[in-house]
Amino acid sequence: MIKLEICCYSISCALVAQQTGADRIELCASPSEGGVTPSFGTLQHALQRLSIPVHPIVRPRGGDFCYSNTDFEVMKNDVARIRDMGFPGIVFGVLNEEGHIDRLRMRQLMSLSGNMEVTFHRAFDMCFNPHVALEQLTELGVQRILTSGQQQSAELGLPLLKELLQASQGPIIMPGAGVRMSNICKFLEIGITEVHSSAGKIVPSAMKYRKAGVTMSSDDSGVDEYAYHCVDGQLVESMKGVISLVQRTN
């Protein structure tokens, strides 16, 4: 069975994804940072309100994946808490200063994960040698690797994705980054069994009053704070329809 994982930044989005056919949720916070660890309240609501598997991300901050000792202690605490809450899976990744898999720290996190499925996230796309990284993650017992094929989008990374898919002796290779209705067939055609998408759209805020000249952003990026990221249920449904069609014809 081909699975569709949807990246969600709120419980509201996760509910939409579930209702429209998602097979699994990657639960995050802060889309502007590419996803960081969700709050305890969000984790609690996920367990209470969602019936499909939810895999929270453990990422203490945005930016790179080479963490300070303090960052790593936070990660260990979060992994243990998520394990004890009863989630079926978890998402994390750690690199060292040279851009290789930090195997010592990964072993610690893997041990703390208990029986949860572990997805190594797109830190993989920032590592020095993807083939060596695949071997090391296989040895560590990682269940899957979320990757764009070390390109800005998974579609551009298709050549490496094919190589990884053929070479993998363990981890599921799951394409992510720019996976949409327009290109999902390209991943299914090479034999991919799981795909990851944010299936997102920007929704305007319900606020009618807008305070001019005041922003919560610390930079000048021109971010519209009266709009937010949301899962597009129609897109999830359409992608799931394509997946179902491919499965029936194979």
TrEMBL record:
Protein's cellular compartments: Cytoplasm
Family of the protein in this entry: Belongs to the CutC family.
Keyword Cytoplasm included in the entry's annotation: yes
Gene3D superfamilies linked: Copper homeostasis (CutC) domain
Keywords annotated in UniProt: Cytoplasm
Organism: Xenorhabdus ehlersii
This protein's encoding gene: cutC
Protein name (database record): PF03932 family protein CutC
Pfam families (alphabetical): CutC (PF03932)
Gene Ontology cellular component annotations, sorted alphabetically: cytoplasm
Keyword Cytoplasm recorded: yes
Gene Ontology MF term list: copper ion binding
Main localization category: cytoplasm
